[in-house]
Structure formats: structure tokens, C-alpha cells
């Protein structure tokens, strides 16, 4: 316990003496969750104005236009004679999308052939594209109702308003914990190596048997900080922003215990490969969007190629985000997220062993280098 306390206090002093880490922890850790919620505050957009170009001018196209205008998502603000007029309205930002019916639309509908229409969206906001596409697809599903071979029913239990913020923020909140931790821990490791020092330089009485104590001591220092940050991100931020919270509070705390521990061990392993302070900034910008999509929040993981499914298992965020979505968005319980908790437990064991090995190897390299320098002198 004495050794553990020594390592813990030393790491805390290192953390609070590094201005860069504190800026990242405070600004990114406490500011990013609120910023993302502010950016996607209007997660539901209604009556997006669009222009319609009806080259078919038939009963089928007019019925389609009437139904599209009746949807919550879009509003037919202009009916144009050609695409040039509609494009001008789009450039002037009077509309945020265009639907164009080709001249043969009605003929193909009468012959029960595949009829097509073209959709153009203002991509200055993804919500414009989402609304235009969804409004058109709702009408399409209604139109093919009389001829469909298999009946379908609509079931949207978790996000009935199709809110983009509910869809996205659940995954981002947990990812922020991992990325802020990765930023901070690897930056401190890179700084230490730039200054020719390392956390692997153990006191003499710890050589040979103190590796586990160092890993535990360093990990506990970050655990105390990031568990509190995790509570703020996973419970307080959603309450501040009016985000739906369907999960049990104590279940979320248990998830955070697993997730934060997993992230700490993950960061300890990968910080071994960081030799310069600025390296982490480039690496994080590259890996963040990959980690986000590997969570499966926008595409089912069962549809991933084998390589990307296996690659996603490297990151705690893959299982942490899935578990948080299942708890807080879907209203599940501990049994629901048991596969993710099991996966994070396996990750913790593997990354703890790798952390100890990495620390031991670096310790031996430092000893050999110091011995060589001593002999050289």
C-alpha cells in the first residue's frame, strides 16, 4: 500500500503540474459534451422547404407531391417549371432541397415498372438531407403499399421523432471519455520521454517486482479523475440538455466503472509508443471518426467486414458506447449489456498484462542505456 500510494501521489503531481493536460481535461472533458449537444440541439427539423420540378405532370406525380407536402419532414414551398429555376432557388437558400420527376414517371407507374425520381439536398446541414430523404421514402413506402408482396409494420420504440441528437450524442458522449483520456495520458508520456524521463524509471526497491504496483498506482490516479468526469458526461450533461435518460442510474455507474478502467489500461498500453508530445494530436484526429463508426451506432456491427469487426475490438469505446446506448437510449438493464461488460472485462485483463509487459520492457531498456552510459564514462 505504501508503494501504491507513492506512485499514486507522484502521478497526481505530474498531472496537476502539466498545463496542457489540465486544459484538455477541463476544456475537452467538460466543454465538448455541452458543445456537441449545443451543435445538435435542434435534433428534429420540421417542414424543410423544398422545390418540386414535375416534368411528368401526371396524376401519380401530383399525388406523390401532395403526400410529400403532408409529411412532417418537408414542405413544398415552390413548384418550378425546370431545374434551372429550382437550382436558382437552392443557391439563394430559399429552399433546402429539390425533388425532380422525370417525364416518364407516370407511364412507368401505370405499367407497374420501376419509376425513379431525383432528390437534391442542401448539404450545409445533414438534417436537410435526412428530412428530404425520409419524407420521400415515407411516401414511396405508402405508394407501393397496394403492390407489396410482404406487409410491414412501423416500430420505432427508442427514437420516434427521428432526432439526430438522440441518434448521435449517445455514442459521442462515451467516446469523449476515451479520447480525452487518450489525449492526456499519451501527451504526458510523450512529454516525459522528450525530457529523457519515464514512468518506467522505478525506485530501486521496486525493481523486479513493482511493475503491477506502478500500473495500479498510475491507473488509480486517472481513475479518480475520469470516473468523476464520466459521471458528469453520462448523467449530468444529458440532464442539462434535456436528453432522454431511460437507464437506471446505478447501472450507468457500474458501466462507467468498467469503461473507465478499460480506457485507462488501454491508454497505458498505447502511450508506450508515444515518444513526442505532439504525436498524439495527429493520431487522435485520425482515429476519432474511425472509433465512432466502429461503435455501430449508424451501421449494425453484424454487417461489418470481418477485418473491421475484429479491429473494433481493440477499443473500449466499441463496447462502452454500445452498452450506454442499450442502457440510456433503449432503456435496457445489466442483463442487456452483459455481453459488453464481458468484453470490457476481457479487454481489461489483456491490457493490464500488456501494460505490465510494456512497463517491464521499457524499464529494462532504461537500465541498459544507463549502464552503457556509465561504462562509456
How would you concisely characterize the structure shown here?
The protein is α/β, with parallel strands linked by helices and 377 residues long.
What tags apply to this protein structure?
13 helices; 377 residues; elongated; alpha/beta
Task: Provide the fold topology.
Blueprint: H1 2-16, H2 19-39, E1 48-54, H3 59-70, E2 74-80, H4 83-91, E3 97-101, H5 105-110, E4 118-121, H6 126-143, H7 164-194, H8 211-240, H9 249-270, H10 279-294, H11 306-312, H12 316-329, H13 338-376
Parallel strand pairs: 1-2, 1-3
Antiparallel strand pairs: 3-4
Helix pairs in contact: 1-8, 2-7, 2-8, 7-8, 7-9, 7-10, 7-12, 8-9, 9-12, 9-13, 12-13
Q: Would you write up a description of this structure?
A:
- By secondary structure, the chain is an alpha/beta fold.
- Helices cover 64% and strands 6% of the residues.
- It has helices at residues 2-16, 19-39, 59-70, 83-91, 105-110, 126-143, 164-194, 211-240, 249-270, 279-294, 306-312, 316-329, 338-376, and strands at residues 48-54, 74-80, 97-101, 118-121.
- Helix 3 links the parallel strand 1 and strand 2 (74-80).
- The longest helix is centred in the last third of the chain and has 39 residues, at 338-376.
- The relative contact order is 0.11.
Order of helices and strands: HHEHEHEHEHHHHHHHH
Query: How many DSSP H or I helices?
Result: 13
Return the average pLDDT rounded to an integer.
Answer: 84
Major sheet, described briefly? Answer: 4 strands, mixed
**Largest beta sheet: strand ordering:** 2-1-3-4
Shape: elongated
Amino acid at each position: 500500500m505504501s508503494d501504491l500510494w507513492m506512485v499514486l501521489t507522484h502521478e497526481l503531481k505530474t498531472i496537476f503540474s502539466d498545463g496542457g493536460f489540465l486544459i484538455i481535461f477541463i476544456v475537452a472533458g467538460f466543454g465538448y459534451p455541452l458543445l456537441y449537444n449545443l451543435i445538435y440541439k435542434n435534433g428534429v427539423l420540421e417542414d424543410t422547404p423544398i422545390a418540386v420540378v414535375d416534368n411528368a405532370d401526371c396524376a401519380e406525380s401530383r399525388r406523390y407531391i401532395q403526400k410529400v407536402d403532408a409529411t412532417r419532414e418537408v414542405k413544398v414551398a415552390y413548384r418550378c417549371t425546370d431545374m434551372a429555376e429550382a437550382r436558382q432557388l437552392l443557391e439563394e437558400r430559399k429552399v433546402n432541397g429539390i425533388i425532380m420527376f422525370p417525364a416518364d414517371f407516370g407511364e412507368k407507374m401505370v405499367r407497374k415498372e420501376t419509376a425513379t425520381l431525383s432528390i437534391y439536398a442542401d448539404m450545409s446541414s445533414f438534417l436537410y438531407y435526412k428530412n428530404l430523404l425520409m419524407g420521400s421514402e415515407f411516401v414511396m413506402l405508402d405508394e407501393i403499399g397496394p403492390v407489396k408482396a410482404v406487409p410491414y409494420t412501423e416500430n420505432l420504440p427508442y427514437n420516434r421523432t427521428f432526432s439526430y441528437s438522440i441518434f448521435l450524442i449517445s455514442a459521442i458522449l462515451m467516446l469523449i471519455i476515451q479520447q480525452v483520456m487518450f489525449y492526456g495520458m499519451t501527451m504526458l508520456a510523450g512529454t516525459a520521454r522528450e525530457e529523457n524521463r519515464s514512468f518506467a524509471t522505478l525506485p530501486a526497491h521496486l525493481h523486479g517486482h513493482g511493475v503491477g504496483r506502478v500500473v495500479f498506482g498510475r491507473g488509480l490516479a486517472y481513475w479518480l479523475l475520469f470516473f468523476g468526469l464520466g459521471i458528469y458526461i453520462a448523467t449530468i450533461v444529458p440532464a442539462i440538455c434535456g436528453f432522454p435518460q431511460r437507464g437506471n442510474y446505478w447501472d450507468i455507474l457500474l458501466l462507467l466503472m468498467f469503461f473507465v478502467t478499460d480506457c485507462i489500461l488501454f491508454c497505458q498500453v498505447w502511450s508506450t509508443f508515444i515518444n513526442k508530445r505532439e504525436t498524439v494530436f495527429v493520431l487522435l484526429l485520425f482515429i476519432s471518426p474511425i472509433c465512432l463508426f466502429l461503435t455501430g451506432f449508424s451501421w449494425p456491427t453484424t454487417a461489418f467486414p470481418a477485418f473491421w469487426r475484429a479491429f473494433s475490438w481493440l477499443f473500449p469505446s466499441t463496447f462502452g458506447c454500445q452498452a450506454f446506448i442499450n442502457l440510456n437510449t433503449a432503456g435496457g438493464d445489466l442483463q442487456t449489456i452483459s455481453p459488453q461488460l464481458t468484453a470490457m472485462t476481457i479487454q481489461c485483463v489483456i491490457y493490464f498484462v500488456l501494460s505490465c509487459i510494456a512497463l517491464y520492457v521499457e524499464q529494462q531498456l532504461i537500465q541498459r542505456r544507463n549502464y552503457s552510459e556509465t561504462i562509456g564514462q
